Amino acid sequence: MPKTVLYARVSTTDQTLEHQRYQAEAAGFKIDKVIADNGVSGISTRLAERPQGKRLYDMLAAGDTLVVRWVDRLGRDYRDVSDSIRHFMDEGVVIKTVINGMTFDGSTKDPIHQAVRDALIAFMAAIAEAQATATKEAQRAGIALAKSDPRTYRGRKPSYSRMQFNQVVTLLNAGAGASAISAQTGLTRQSILRIRNDRAGAERALALWD
How many whole angstroms separate alpha carbon 143 and alpha carbon 12? Predict the structure, then answer.
């Protein structure tokens, strides 16, 4: 019987498995099984090299649905995300995202639909890599700052994580409103508006705590 599997990656304390499952179910998904990698870096480890990521390749079959919070869960960079999506589509698995409600289905035979789907895969994979690159650069900047002056006052810790910041920026760029972004990320409208109104300042504050 076809099954719906949620794959979650939990790398920080605020990316809880319960929160990711709640968001998926709130979006209308009926989850049969949850597969989660804990403490695994999404910006340095390929999906196929993660302990539980490997399981997806063995357990998913034609007719199954793979649910992820967003496409960045499926790889560390452009090629990894693209290859993962195409592998599962070739196996007859439908991939769906909680954020933006995207669907990647390899069953379509219409060349126009295929072209649109492939372009969307490339675009979303590129965004995922751009976010990963931004995260690594911000982490390096934060480490460099801390090393230059260990007494540096970092201020109040931001109410959002690096992942949430990247998601807010992505959704803002897509034209989403603060209320809609709040519902998808779990952040308050005030936090979202703070990022929207001073993105550079929000980025600097976050870099101090990465």
Answer: 17
Burial of 69 (0-12, 13-18, 19+ CB in 10 A): buried
Q: Are 29 and 67 in contact (CB under 8 A)?
A: yes
The Cα 47–Cα 65 span in angstroms is 17
pLDDT for 109-139, tens place per residue? 777 777 877 777 777 777 766 666 666 666 6
Cα–Cα distance measured from residue 41 to residue 48, given in angstroms and rounded to the nearest whole number: 13
Task: Sketch out the chain's domains with CATH numbers.
Answer: 4-110 (3.40.50.1390), 119-207 (no CATH)
What sign does the CA torsion over 155, 168, 56, 83 have?
A: negative
Instruction: Report the first-to-last Cα separation within the chain, whole angstroms.
Output: 43
Answer whether 0.70 is exceeded by the pTM. Answer: no
What's the rounded Cα separation, in Å, for the pair 106 and 104? 7
Residue closest to 8 by CA, chosen among 31, 26, 88:
31
Question: Computed over its alpha carbons, how large is the radius of gyration of the chain?
Answer: 18
